Amino acid sequence: MFGQNSDYDRGINTFSPEGRIFQVEYAIEAIKLGSSAVGIQVKEGCVLAIERRLNSTLVVPSSIEKIYKVDDHIAIAVSGVVTDARTLVEHARVEAQQHKLTYLEPIGLRALTQAVSDLAINFGEGDPNSKKRPMARPFGVALLIAGVDENGPCLYQTDPSGTMIEFLARGIGAAD
Question: What are residue 128's phi and psi, to 5 degrees?
Fold first, then answer.
């Protein structure tokens, strides 16, 4: 009876009787169809690598961006819906700059990752009349947020559910 998702996959904040939000699960499946991204934490820092899938021989490989610089000490690798990734990366850049201007120090990786995860979890919530309107669906992207802060090198992964987990090494997308 509850095995079908028919009524529960339409609402973005509706839990099924099994405690699942199908829209988040669909976003996670979209990430698995994305290109691979890998992050590795080493003693001196972190390494991020991505796979560039070329759907056509006419595509200029250097035009495919999947690794973004957030601040001098933080970079993000993405897999999934790139337009969603750009929204989250821009939010991360704004958070990093606001922190630097307010506290006169670079933002910590954990604090930045938490800010990005907070935005990711806010889908479907908020005042629709405000300037900062929420997404009408979960972000279909996973991020590897890597860098070096006062605690040393760190590597975090975020997903559409707003979960953030620290790793020593992690693959997302097809590499998951």
Answer: -65, -15
Rounded distance, CA 160 to CA 119, Å?
10
Q: Is 37 exposed, middle or buried (0-12, 13-18, 19+ CB in 10 A)?
A: buried
* Closest among 77, 66, 79, 64 to 29, alpha carbons compared: 79
Q: 27: helix, coil or strand?
A: helix
What distances in angstroms separate CA 173 from CA 16, 28, 83, 164, one per listed residue?
Answer: 26, 9, 15, 16
User: pTM to 2 decimals?
Assistant: 0.86
> Would you give per-residue pLDDT tens digits along the chain (176 residues)?
345 545 656 666 677 778 777 778 888 888 888 899 999 999 999 999 999 888 888 989 888 899 999 999 999 999 999 999 999 999 999 999 999 999 999 999 999 999 999 998 887 665 566 555 556 788 899 999 999 999 999 999 999 988 999 999 999 998 77
Write the single-letter amino acid at 106: P
* Largest Cα span, the chain: 57
At a CB cut-off of 8 Å and minimum separation 6, what does 113 contact?
A: 145, 156, 158, 164
Terminal Cα-to-Cα distance of the chain (whole angstroms) = 31
Backbone angles phi, psi at 70, to 5 degrees: -95, -45
Residue at 153: amino acid letter: P
